[in-house]
From TrEMBL:
Organism: Micromonospora sicca
The name this protein goes by in its record: VOC family protein
UniProt key word Metal-binding: yes
Domain VOC: residue ranges: 12-134
Domain of life: Bacteria
A Pfam family assignment: Glyoxalase
Keyword terms, alphabetized: Metal-binding
Length: 143
């Protein structure tokens, strides 16, 4: 494993998504085999490079000295969430078809929402993932 394969910023900040998994190997396989990422570390924690970001996968656990009142666990209720992974794509229908063929189970087909087309799926532990394609053209000049 090369150092550039790990989520270590050369400067500034780097954003990675952390998920708690009941079975780390199963989740790493989902993010690599189904979503097309590359496993760059297999465990403790597992890390999957996905496009221009990383998904870090570990088992849950109790409080630690740096998070004394926090317990990490898989989602207890798949019908409620307070955060989710948002993946932006250039061609949502192509991604939907490809990932479905690889075993992804989407909640619905892509839906046109006006400014974007989007759909959702879950990883093996129930973490919600949004897949969206922006259809509104960006304005020039930053406005």
């Amino acid at each position: 494993m090369a150092l550039e394969d790990l989520p270590i910023p050369a400067e500034g900040i780097l954003l990675a998504h952390f998920v708690v998994a009941a079975d780390v190997a199963r989740s790493a396989a989902f993010y690599s085999d189904v979503l097309g990422g590359t496993v760059v570390r297999e465990a403790d924690p597992a890390m999957v490079r996905l496009a221009n970001s990383w998904v870090i996968i570990a088992v849950g656990g109790g409080p630690t000295e740096d998070k004394p009142d926090v317990i990490l666990e898989t989602p207890p209720d798949p019908h409620r969430t307070s955060a989710f992974l948002n993946i932006r794509v250039a061609d949502i229908q192509a991604v939907y078809d490809e990932w479905t063929a690889r075993g992804a189970r989407f909640l619905t087909r892509p839906k046109d929402r006006g400014r974007e087309i989007r759909c959702y799926l879950r990883d093996p532990d129930g973490h919600l993932i949004e897949v969206g394609q922006t259809v509104e053209k960006p304005r020039r000049g930053g406005r």
